[in-house]
Amino acid sequence: MCGFCLAIDDTSVDIHRLTESIRHRGPDSTRYHIDSRVMCGFNRLAIVDNDPLSDQPMLDRSGRFLLLFNGEIYNHGKLRAMLEARYNEQFRTHSDTEVLLVGLIHEGAKFAFKLDGIFAFAFVDLQSLEVMLGRDWFGVKPLYYFGRGERLYVSSEIRPLWQLSGNSLRMSNVARFLSYGTVAQHETFVSGVSELEPNTLRTFRSGHLVRTRKLHDFAYDEYENANINELADVLHRTIDDQKPKIPYGVLFSGGLDSTLILDRCVSDGNLFGAYSVDVSHPDMSERRWQDYAIRTLGIANKHRGIELHQEHLSLANIAKLSTGLDHPMFHPNFVGSYLITRKAAEDGLKVLLSGEGADELFLGYRWFFSDQPVSAFLEYVPLEDMQTLLGAEISGPVDTSGMSLLEIFQRIYLQRWLLRQDLTGMANSIEVRVPFLGLDVASFANKLSYTFKRGNAESKWIIKQLLSPRFCREFVNRKKVGFDFPLNDWIGEEHIDFLRRECWLIDRTMLDSVLQKYSGSYMRNRLVFSLVSFALWHRTTATASPSVS
Asked: What is the mean pLDDT of residues 409-422?
């Protein structure tokens, strides 16, 4: 897992400064390629093949083609064998990077369709200056770009492009991000800077977009029945493929999804620890279930936990954790995610496995069993109120037209949690892998009918069937508790007083009016947290004085 910056046809760019600004994404090595028309820098987090020959930017033997690649290709061994047999290739390294470079040279976009992994890449023909950008199907790894005439700029984070462009924040998109956890619709909260959509390849020539392709189309609701043991085999194989050959950990909430992953990993000699966050509040603590699962699996010596208290949501702590993050922490569970990945980094780890995506694939949310409107689960805080508070132009909600409920959860809702994992993991130089979002698992799950996955009108009925032989009924069938915080107890007057002082951001009279509207409601302090987080993030991260539009 890594981070890179690229500038095409603009050698005035300070590529060293931009690359250094995202060094947390890859502290193991930093390398550059600079010629008369292309400048790029790469920070590497070495996981597959630690040989310096695998450093990036990587050029082919002819020096014509260049690759910048963030992520992991889990099937690179099979692809390597195919390339050796079909094209008589002789590889110089054992890295997945070289496999991707060679495959794109020989087969172009067709090779990208064969990838199984998490990835964001820029493939450059240094002769024609054609650039192909690619991103995995769920968008586990981020990629951003903007163009100016014939110039093209690409980065693993928004901030280098924000610095480079000098563009302002677009407050209507800030409001949308704080409401949904994603801007969506290909935009970002910086004017003119675009996000490469998940599941997309885009090709540019002379800085202009010439072609867009989709990598994969999932089929839905094809099978009314399935052999659950077959799904178990697919999931176990995917987990095994994603286990690194170095010490690693599992992000373990005590919930069903992470328990299933941990159960598969306990016999692996490279498993270093199970990393848990627990909210110290009687209504939200999962400590009982974490302890039960750890005892059942017999790995008490490998349990690494942190307990969150009210002080973790103090102004000082939010400001400290926001420093250097590419986005504001739109949800308070970013705090726990940041702290637990930091703990893993302090233990010397580079990789964690996570159960992210299981809820979206296997009906893990109560909204799958209700008739509530989409806004009930997509909006963490009401978009209309956030636009009012920020004085932003009115923009419509995220477009969900033509999508099934499963697609809405996978293509929109899931993005907030994948962003959280990338931001908080890479801030601590940790790669977070997501076995439930492996291509084989996701394809299998999406083909199952909605009726089959519902079972007896139970959320995650299939996951429960997989766990039942190993864990007690009370553990498996308990009510789901989301990773949330007791904001009504932990957000107080210091946060509201802080907002009243941030007059550049928000009108004090409007703030009091909206807070009064939600007096006694949990939504009041959600709004307060979101605004505090944004204001502190802007204060500690923005490159200049407030610039908004």
From this structure: 96
